[in-house]
Design brief:
Porin; twelve-stranded antiparallel β-barrel; globular
Length: about 350
């Protein structure tokens, strides 16, 4: 049975209007029956609201668990073309396996890999480790801090950012019907990583400015801030007594520097389950700018869906994005799928 507020409240309203149109008869027994019916209806309404409150508490209350997921999504990669001095952008299917442990105290640790098919073989070109902490003691808001260390192969024929380390923090206010969030990322790398990718970096900047600028003393870092707002719609007990569907429309606005671009951030069920706030999944870092400036980067519309039954879940995400720094083809769209178990 569908149990959600935005469906139940209109039905209750219409039911009230119907009762107000009933002609009152001078009969004690009929009045008693009507009052009993109203009392039963009110009781059912309260039970449904309690069920929804219990469900929301169950997915946000701190508890310990392991999790394993596999994600699938399209990403854009800049490959070296031996016949041309410029890079060629290709859309590739990316696989992202992930395992993690999340303790009820808020501390967590996860390992994730990025797998891609290139040179006629499928290989993991990058993996990362991410210790973090989520503050979940207050039901009105959630906050967290995550550090990620990336390890990337040196023999790959496409561009990856020289940023090896990333600190990601978020704050989500959960009390309102529309839930606003702010996310901040800071990434940095080493001179050796920059040197290994310097030619590719200059080729990408050539697309933007038309000239190649070399700054051997520049700092290896990038900084970004994202603001978004969303609402979660829930349907409970769809096919069984322990499943649900969640639909989350979202608007996100990103600003930051774009000297090197960040590594992709994966939207995981762990973040959704613990904080009711998602991380934007995006793999497009095509246009780089060697000017140290803070600027608008993108405006995106996202539609997230989730079906969960018992310990199994499957998620999907459709992203329609307008990328401001691009000289052409500013609009893009992405679709990703994520599935896994919580145990």
């Amino acid at each position: 049975m569908f149990k959600i507020k935005f469906i139940i409240i209109p039905l209750l309203f219409f039911g009230t209007v119907t009762f107000s149109q009933v002609t009152v008869k001078d009969s004690v027994s009929e009045k008693s029956s009507e009052l009993a019916f109203l009392a039963d209806s009110t009781l059912d309404f309260e039970l449904m609201m309690k069920d929804l409150d219990w469900f929301l508490d169950s997915i946000s209350t701190p508890h310990s668990y392991f999790m394993g997921t596999v994600g699938f999504g399209k990403g854009y990669y800049n490959f070296i073309n031996k016949a041309d001095i410029l890079l060629e952008t290709e859309s590739k299917l990316t696989y992202t396996p992930m395992v993690g442990y999340f303790h009820k105290s808020g501390f967590n640790f996860s390992v994730m890999g990025n797998v891609l098919r290139y040179n006629n073989k499928t290989s993991m070109y990058q993996f990362s480790i991410s210790p973090g902490y989520d503050y979940l003691e207050n039901r009105d808001f959630a906050a967290g801090l995550i550090f990620t260390r990336y390890f990337t192969r040196n023999d790959i024929p496409f561009y990856t950012t020289p940023l090896q380390n990333e600190i990601f923090s978020y704050f989500t206010y959960r009390k309102w019907w529309l839930k606003p969030s702010m996310k901040v990322s800071y990434g940095w790398g080493s001179r050796s990583e920059y040197s290994e990718r310097e030619t590719l970096i200059q080729d990408l900047r050539l697309r933007r400015d038309g000239i190649i600028k070399i700054n051997s003393k520049e700092s290896i870092n990038d900084f970004s801030i994202s603001w978004d707002v969303k609402h979660d719609f829930y349907w409970l007990d769809i096919f069984s007594d322990n499943d649900h569907i969640r639909i989350s429309p979202q608007i996100a606005f990103d600003c930051g520097t774009q000297k090197f671009g960040f590594n992709q951030s994966a939207n995981t069920y762990a973040t959704t389950r613990r904080t009711n706030s998602d991380i934007l999944y995006q793999t497009e870092n095509i246009y780089l700018d060697d000017q140290i400036q803070f600027q608008p980067l993108s405006l995106g519309l996202l539609l997230r869906g989730e079906y969960s039954i018992g310990k199994f879940f499957i998620q999907s995400q459709l992203t329609m994005d307008y990328y401001f720094p691009a000289l052409n083809n500013n609009f893009s769209s992405f679709f990703s799928l994520n599935a896994g178990f919580v145990f």
